[in-house]
Amino acid sequence: MxxxxxILCCGILGCSTAPNQLSPSAQRxxxxxxxxxxxxxxxxxxxxxxxxxxxxxxxxxxxxxxxxEGDGNSWKTRYKLSDNPTPRQPLALELASHDPHxxxxxxxxxxxxxxxxxxxxxxxxxxxxxxxxxxxxxSMDEILTALKKKTHATHFVLIGFSGGASVATLLASKRQDxxxxxxxxxxxxxxxxxxxxxxxxxxxxxxPTEVASSLKYLTQHHWNGSKDxxxxxWIAEQFAKxxxxxxxxxxxxxxxxxxxxxxxxxxxxxxxxxxxx
Length: 277
Description:
The chain is α/β, with parallel strands linked by helices. The chain has helices spanning about 10-15, 25-35, 90-95, 135-150, 165-170, 190-195, 235-245, 265-275; strands spanning about 5-10, 40-45, 50-55, 65-70, 105, 155-160, 180-185, 220-225, 250-255. About 30% of the residues lie in helices and about 20% in strands.
């Protein structure tokens, strides 16, 4: 029988990680999240130890908003992998801290934030070729199941930034309790995107475009920035064509917004628009 352990870890990252793992920008966002009453937990799944910030009061919610971080600090240079993928600009956490919903959780990706001494499964492939490997998606799936048991919630809204959109989309294809999917600058086809940038293929990763047909009737909002040079708008447009159901799949482009900049200022309106339909 699978078991998932939830460990309350307020302060553990500050004591257990090297200071250079958190950039000043990341520390600012973490402080902001703490001020929004989000506390740190570690979720120990069958494969990974996943760091999370969450605001989950004891009241029973119908829905939990789940934010999934991007790929983080994957590469030091174009040709050299980082030794720690903890994001320098954790945009998904910043967006989560601005979400007024009662029950919100932010999930870092495998090996982000968590001291690698606490997670023996950490290997650089999980922030390179295997970013969206089956075992990564399975770990996130375990956490959602544990959250339902813990809170008695019935549904989730999945919100993924950049590579976190891949994880959220693949996760949505596995479950029947996702009420909607929201992506922000989402990598929804890493094969095509890597060909576009002429970067290494993610040979150990699942591709969201391969599960598009299973999401035909799921409400989705894919948000893009007109100035995004990392994930161009046409990635989401191609994904929507794969699904071919404009009644459920909505593509939005915000003028003047880039991959990281401009999202926070628009987040209230993005949430309102995405949750209306």
